[in-house]
């Protein structure tokens, strides 16, 4: 017992010889700053390297999109020697190119709206009530998020062809609900669980009907959850290619599929390919910019 | 939270049920239907029983693809989870730099998957890509379309590039939820950096890390587009993962019966592994709630 | 255990504080005597947690020094200061057992295993958790977790000071009393210097030898519970301590007489000329209802709180509380209130003015 008692104060005294004589302000700042700076620098180096790793391939794509094909193939340079916007011009003036973007944005928006609309009441039911088979239903919904699109590609093709929806935006939007609805239900349920039940009860006592309560009171409360769910629906629908390519041919062809065609047709048109790639990054970057303050919480799906 | 029993809640779930029935159950029935029949073209189908399943279980091609798939998922989980945690620990906590990191890190997650493939296809080429060119200049022979090792390395690095941020962002969200008092108490208790990580940060990240592992496992197990664009499954069958193999079989060769049987087995494997994860996760939740 | 000296200390959360109002903690000089139990009392946001975090080293002050036993520790990190701190919300290591939680600070400092085992057992007995020693801390109730935090704070015997930051917020009322008693007896037994932050006056007055009252980033009074009650140095102390708090009314002072709206009141002491905002303060306990003498009042409400009654009244538009003994009748003719002259405190610009014994006043 005594060994600690005598030992520790001694250490305390040893640690600060001379400190008493120094002026107080100087000791404070000098001792504190280098320590903090050193730690920040270590982290900054790690983050710097990681972000460099993330950005280099994207930069390279941007770099190539601003070069002519002959420059790409003849000289190897870290930045464009003859800066050109010709590749972008090609895409933005050719309907078969830019309609790809329009198509993608149409079905992604449709999908997001459908997914959130049907997921909201379901998530509410899961977060508030227990009913026959609720747990099984919830897990079964989640299993659809685990279904490989490759498994569904052919049956989807046949199903949507037989009901005459092949090559329409709504077909792709519906197909993407396969994985987006379960995800939206999951995320929204997490956020709704965080809203106390008393709010529901108070609203009913105040004479609100369920639909009015849901739209006027409940939805504003989970607005950030809806935003996060919409972000995820947008993200997964925007990046998916296999299903959207299988279910379209001309009218609703997504930009991603347009790109794959171009690669095989004129495999050497690297400049246009890179420009098209850069343009597909832009909508995602815009969405991220708008939700940047919710990203951290959003990625935890409301479960932190 | 105590939930009230209310069977009418089914009405609220109904829209989801109808939609998912249309987009999941009907197609799945089609798959089951194909898996037990044979066809000689046209619309003539014959009952084939479990023949396709039997054939599949004895098919070296399927087992090879499954082996490659498992190896791939294991490798990327082993890299992305620790790396993601490490990155999250080093991220700035707030302010401009935190926002910047969040935005830049999210960027790869929102790039269409075939564009991810294209980016790495270009980046790795010896003639026009920065990575390929640099490796070539350093005297390292690197060609992802010819060399087995280079193909795997490219696909793995690409996946790490694409998805580590997801793990990092989840882990970061977990870290952000730790109150300052924990770190202060640890300072007072003279805990080492390692102990702070082991006893404060890791336990608090447990929940989100399970989500991260589950998502990364599922998505890596279904990976199709990115390796397809970069390597096309080659060289040989070196990077032919389950989805690539399946699409080849179903849409390329139109072997509907075997493809359908393959699909079902594939789905079952994912379900099984995910169910294990899910059970572990909910058990952890229960333990927390005690 | 150590004497803690605050020398010229001040803190602002702004990088370039301009005026005094930018400081969360205004300039402060004080000695915390070795082995005493202090309570740091004040409303939320008054700077008491800031002060505590500066003492524990979690916060670097913007100016001034902190000395432990006359040794400057301002630049030392928390770990080197050898203090223990218990936080408002329970901080426990969820994945460890209760035993490992309690042993953690000792093991980190390399204490030997025998000693750790003995000491942990002792502390577990003190906080009443011997039965749960081998349980995981995860899943325990909030007050069990907070007991572990308290135990972890007390486990080291050699600490320079024990700091408590509103540690009983999450504890059940009956456990609060029990734990506070244990802390007190622990203090008597080991004689640690203890600083206990709270916004609850009962907690402060029952726990501490000396109470430090803070208001708006400033220490307004340091004293024993009795001093705070009898002679509040600042109107805030009068108002904050006591239930209900001290009555404060604007007045004019001339020698040993106070005039409230023209009505004169005798004072126990004499005062010279005062400038600024002049007020008198009187505890409800020292006010008496009568039918003839003193200031006129309107009784608005009478609250019976058991041991006594609180009369809520109105005097020249100011709220006035009077405590009347349980059972004493309050008649309709009770329209006046008189004060015990010796208990009236005089304030100029909120600070108490010391008077001179009567007779010698001008």
Automatic annotation (TrEMBL), chain C:
The keyword ATP-binding applies. Keywords: ATP-binding, Cell membrane, Membrane, Nucleotide-binding, Transport. SUPFAM superfamilies: MOP-like, P-loop containing nucleoside triphosphate hydrolases. One of its GO terms (cellular component) is ATP-binding cassette (ABC) transporter complex, substrate-binding subunit-containing. InterPro entries: AAA+_ATPase, ABC_transporter-like_ATP-bd, ABC_transpr_FbpC, ABC_transpr_MalK/UgpC-like, Mo/tungstate-bd_C_term_dom, NA-bd_OB-fold, OB_MalK-like, P-loop_NTPase. SMART domains: AAA (SM00382). One of its GO terms (molecular function) is ABC-type ferric iron transporter activity. Belongs to the ABC transporter superfamily. PANTHER family: ABC TRANSPORTER ATP-BINDING PROTEIN, MALTODEXTRIN IMPORT ATP-BINDING PROTEIN MSMX. This is ABC transporter ATP-binding protein.
């Amino acid at each position: 017992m005594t060994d600690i008692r005598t030992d520790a104060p001694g250490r305390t005294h040893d640690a600060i010889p001379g400190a008493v004589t120094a002026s107080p302000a100087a000791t404070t700042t000098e001792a504190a700053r280098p320590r903090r700076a050193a730690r920040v620098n270590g982290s900054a180096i790690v983050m710097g390297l990681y972000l460099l790793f993330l950005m280099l391939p994207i930069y390279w794509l941007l770099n190539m999109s601003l070069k002519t094909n002959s420059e790409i193939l003849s000289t190897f340079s870290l930045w464009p020697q003859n800066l050109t916007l010709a590749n972008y011009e090609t895409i933005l003036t050719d309907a078969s190119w830019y309609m790809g973007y329009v198509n993608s944005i149409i079905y992604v928006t449709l999908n997001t709206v459908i997914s959130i609309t049907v997921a909201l009441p379901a998530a509410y039911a899961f977060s508030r009530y227990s009913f026959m088979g609720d747990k099984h239903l919830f897990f079964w919904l989640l299993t659809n998020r685990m279904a490989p699109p490759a498994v569904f590609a052919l049956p989807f093709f046949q199903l949507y062809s037989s009901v005459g929806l092949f090559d329409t935006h709504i077909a792709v939007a519906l197909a993407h609900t396969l994985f987006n609805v379960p995800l939206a239900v999951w995320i929204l349920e997490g956020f709704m669980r965080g809203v106390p039940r008393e709010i529901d009860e108070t609203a009913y006592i105040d004479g609100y009907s369920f639909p009015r309560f849901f739209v006027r009171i409940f939805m504003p409360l989970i607005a950030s959850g809806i935003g996060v769910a919409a972000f995820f629906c947008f993200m997964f629908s925007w990046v998916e290619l296999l299903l959207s390519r299988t279910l379209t041919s001309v009218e609703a062809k997504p930009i991603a599929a347009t790109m794959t065609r171009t690669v095989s047709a004129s495999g050497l048109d690297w400049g246009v390919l890179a420009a098209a790639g850069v343009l597909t990054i832009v909508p995602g970057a815009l969405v991220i910019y708008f939700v940047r303050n919710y990203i951290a919480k959003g990625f935890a799906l409301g479960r932190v | 939270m105590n939930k009230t029993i209310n069977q009418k809640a089914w009405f609220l779930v109904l829209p989801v049920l109808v939609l998912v029935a249309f987009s999941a159950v009907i197609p799945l029935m089609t798959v089951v239907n194909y898996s037990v029949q044979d066809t000689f073209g046209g619309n003539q189908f014959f009952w084939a029983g479990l023949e396709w399943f039997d054939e599949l279980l004895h098919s070296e091609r399927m087992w090879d693809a499954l082996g490659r798939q498992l190896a791939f998922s294991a490798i990327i989980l082993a890299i992305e989870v620790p790396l993601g945690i490490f990155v999250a620990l080093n991220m700035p906590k707030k302010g401009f730099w935190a926002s910047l990191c969040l935005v830049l890190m999210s960027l790869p997650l929102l790039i269409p998957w075939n564009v991810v493939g294209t980016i790495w296809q270009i980046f790795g080429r010896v003639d026009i890509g920065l990575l390929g060119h640099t490796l070539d200049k350093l005297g390292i022979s690197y060609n992802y379309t010819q060399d087995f090792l280079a193909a795997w390395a490219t696909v793995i690095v690409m996946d790490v590039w694409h998805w580590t941020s997801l793990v990092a962002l989840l882990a970061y969200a977990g870290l952000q939820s730790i109150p300052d008092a924990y770190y202060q108490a640890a300072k007072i208790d003279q805990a080492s950096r390692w102990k702070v990580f082991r006893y404060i940060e890791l336990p608090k990240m447990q929940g989100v890390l399970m989500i991260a592992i589950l998502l990364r496992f599922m998505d890596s197990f279904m990976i199709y587009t990115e390796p397809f664009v970069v390597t096309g499954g080659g060289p040989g069958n070196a990077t032919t993962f389950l989805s690539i193999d399946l699409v080849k079989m179903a849409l390329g060769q139109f072997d509907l019966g075997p493809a359908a049987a393959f699909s079902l087995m594939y789905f079952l494997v994912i379900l099984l592994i995910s169910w294990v994860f899910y059970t572990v996760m909910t058990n952890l939740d229960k333990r927390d709630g005690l | 255990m150590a004497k803690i000296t605050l020398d010229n200390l001040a803190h602002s959360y702004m990088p370039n504080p301009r005026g005094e109002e930018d400081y969360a903690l205004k300039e402060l000089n004080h000695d915390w005597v070795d082995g005493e139990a202090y309570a740091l009392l004040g409303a939320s946001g008054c700077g008491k947690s800031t002060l505590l975090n500066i003492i524990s080293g979690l916060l670097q002050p913007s100016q001034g020094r902190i000395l432990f036993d006359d040794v400057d520790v301002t630049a030392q990190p928390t770990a080197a200061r050898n203090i223990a701190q218990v936080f408002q919300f329970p901080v426990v290591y969820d994945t460890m057992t209760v035993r490992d939680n309690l042993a953690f600070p000792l093991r980190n400092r390399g204490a030997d295993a025998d000693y750790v085992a003995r000491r942990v057992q002792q502390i577990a007995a003190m906080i009443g958790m011997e039965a749960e020693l081998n349980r995981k801390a995860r899943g325990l109730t909030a007050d069990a977790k907070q007991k572990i935090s308290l135990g972890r704070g007390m486990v080291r015997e050699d600490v320079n000071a024990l700091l408590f930051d509103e540690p009983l917020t999450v504890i059940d009322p009956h456990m609060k009393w029990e734990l506070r008693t244990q802390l007190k007896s622990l203090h008597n037994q080991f004689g640690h210097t203890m600083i206990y932050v709270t916004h609850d006056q009962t907690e402060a007055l029952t726990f501490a030898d000396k109470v430090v009252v803070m208001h708006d980033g400033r220490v307004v009074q340091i004293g024993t519970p009795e001093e705070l009650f009898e002679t509040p140095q600042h109107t805030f102390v009068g108002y904050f301590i006591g239930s209900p708090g001290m009555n404060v009314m604007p007045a004019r002072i001339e020698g040993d007489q106070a005039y409230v709206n023209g009505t004169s009141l005798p004072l126990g002491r004499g005062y010279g000329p005062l400038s600024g905002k002049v007020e008198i303060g009187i505890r409800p306990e020292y006010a008496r209802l009568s039918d003839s003498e003193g200031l006129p009042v309107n009784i608005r409400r009478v609250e019976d709180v058991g041991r006594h009654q609180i009369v809520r009244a109105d005097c020249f538009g100011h709220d006035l509380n009077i405590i009347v003994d349980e059972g004493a009748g309050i008649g309709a003719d009770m329209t006046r209130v008189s004060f015990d002259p010796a208990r009236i405190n005089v304030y100029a610009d909120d600070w108490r003015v010391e008077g001179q014994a009567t007779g010698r006043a001008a």
